[in-house]
């Protein structure tokens, strides 16, 4: 009991200390902006529907939702670096993007490895001259298994691929995003972070944690002009869920739950992600937006 009390007391003291030091460290400009009710710098511009001149790192850009995001951001004018584990798939995509006149580079990286994440960020830092406007934490694996059958190794692998990677990459990207003076992080979560789904307890836990991480970083890093948002897709037609799409019983049950009565397309997720990166959304911060045809708000039987 005393241990619990000590922990809370420490937390409280630490919280007070950091609040005080933050106030002391505020610049005169920030103080004036706060007093005028401006807070962090407003950055709505005439060019608010363009990403020209911006840089982006998108993990898992070779397939599905990640690939659609790379292409959507490139259409808005961003220069992009992406990654995946398969060199062959990456090279195929790079050729496709070159033919489309998009500015995209890529490297092989397994985001479940802390060392490879550091190498990835080093690469982005050198390509983009130390400045990054956009980080999209998209790469993840699906994992379905009844909770009692999940091994510790499997649990750790799903956590490191889906959640540790997103947190660590955000941490590594922080100085680059701050240096850009207009940073935006978008996490790709899932409706499984809101809903209880049999056999998806570990996958759902990675996404639920990501939803909360969004809100926490949105508060912690707003002062550095970094916005943090998240999208939570329902079932989207990608290679990840191909086996489910071939299952007629699943398709019938699932589409019945979705008011729009269909699954989503990768481009429908990419469009919302692009909006969250555009200056047009510069007052949107800390939000988790479901892109699920209305599945999570459907109360009908
Ligand atoms: N599709 C859906 O219905 C759905 C629904 C909700 C949420 N989501 C989320 O949306 C995101 C994208 O899913 P998706 O459906 O587009 O998946 P996908 O079709 O399987 O594509 C995943 C991408 O991530 C890469 N990737 C996977 N593991 C990686 C790793 N360890 N390191 C680096 N890259 C890795 C893959 O390339 P390599 O295999 O070559 O590494 C691929 O480019 C995920 O976060 C997923 O949880 C998807």
From TrEMBL:
Signal peptide: none annotated. Keywords: NADP, Oxidoreductase. The keyword Lipid metabolism does not apply. PROSITE patterns: ADH_SHORT. The keyword Cytoplasm does not apply. It comes from the Eukaryota. GO terms for molecular function: oxidoreductase activity. Pfam families: adh_short_C2 (PF13561). This is Uncharacterized protein. It comes from Musa acuminata subsp. malaccensis.
